[in-house]
Write a structure and sequence with these properties.
The protein has 321 residues and is mainly beta. Helices cover 6% and strands 47% of the residues. The longest helix is centred in the C-terminal third of the chain and has 16 residues.
Length: 321
């Protein structure tokens, strides 16, 4: 039995930064690597934020230093449709200080005591998928809804026209919201909201200049549109990797549905965005499966790990019946 194996290791900075012309807030995450042997910490302690880094973003003509801050940012809705704000600590700066412009190249340089300096750059895609070239088709599917029961539930299929004349990579995000009203114990009229989300990353390889079809958005967690139950809203449902969406308290109440709609985001991304997120997606889907093949996480950070990437996106909202 060999026990004196010396695996070379040194701490490196880990960076995550995504920027787009639609940004109102520039955000950069700076943490550090952690060894997979020895004492392994859990949660945020395993990858602590680096608080004293010098983070500089430049467009080649102007440079800005992004400070470390803790902001209260909207992260979800509560059951009554109000924003839930969560404290998030990152390097933040208003995009007004350095607007992100399509077609421009941006460079990120980061230094911190005790670490080798890192840098990366990205080019913001110029073209976007036109809103008129995005369509949403709703169908009804009958299938298993859990515990051996079957039912009919909606499914949403998104289609969009590939950007012609260039290699393209896309991120397709869908956010399904359901809003309704109910009468509480005091006789007051209340609003209730629940939702679920889906993300998909698509390359146009083999389907250049054609209509690209995203995987169906399965809404079976909303098979009963007349009652909202559970212990709060889910963050993913069946498609999003989180618990099924719900809303409200432990007691189901009769809800009169007023609105159902789906927000669709089609982002034209650079290669780094696509390769990094598809790798992370594979890791999430493995979900600790010991028989899953290891996935090498993509990085474009010189002297470090992580990603800096750019995208340019369109958005439409469609009603769901």
């Amino acid at each position: 039995m060999v026990t004196d194996i010396d695996i070379p290791y040194h701490d490196r900075l880990v960076v995550q930064c995504f920027i787009s012309p639609q940004d109102t807030l520039l955000e950069v995450s700076v943490t550090q690597t952690a060894p997979v042997i020895g004492t392994v910490l859990d949660g945020a302690e395993r990858y602590p934020n680096i608080l004293n880094a010098n983070v500089v973003l430049s467009d080649g003509q102007k440079s800005v230093t992004i400070p470390y801050k803790t902001l209260q940012l909207p992260s979800a809705y509560d059951a009554d449709g109000e924003y839930i704000f969560t404290a998030r600590s990152r390097y933040f700066l208003s995009a007004k200080n350095l607007p992100i412009i399509a077609g421009k190249n941006y460079t990120l340089k980061i230094s911190a005591p005790g670490f080798e300096s890192v840098e990366s750059s990205c080019l913001i895609p110029t073209k976007v998928v036109s809103e008129k070239d995005i369509s949403s088709i709703q169908t009804s599917i009958t299938g298993n809804i859990g515990r051996g029961a079957t039912g009919t539930y909606p499914s949403i299929e998104v289609r969009f026209k590939d950007i012609e004349g260039e290699e393209s990579f896309y991120s397709v995000g869908q956010f399904f919201y359901q809003k309704g009203t109910y009468i509480d114990a005091t006789g007051a009229k209340k609003i209730r909201v629940n939702w679920t989300t889906k993300y998909e990353y698509i390359s146009d390889k083999g389907q250049e200049n054609k209509t690209i079809v995203a995987l169906p958005f399965d809404l079976r967690s909303f098979n009963n549109f007349n009652s909202f139950g559970g212990n709060g809203n889910g963050a993913g449902g069946i498609n999003g990797g989180g618990p099924q969406a719900g809303g409200g308290n432990n007691n189901n109440v009769l809800v009169t549905v007023t609105d159902r709609y789906n927000e669709i985001y089609i982002a034209n991304t650079d290669k780094a965005y696509y390769f990094y997120n598809t790798a992370i997606d594979k890791i999430r889907k493995a979900n600790g499966n010991p028989f899953a093949e290891p996935v090498l996480t993509y990085t474009n950070i010189k002297n470090g790990l992580g990603v800096m990437a750019g995208y340019n996106q369109s958005r439409i909202v469609v009603k769901v019946n």
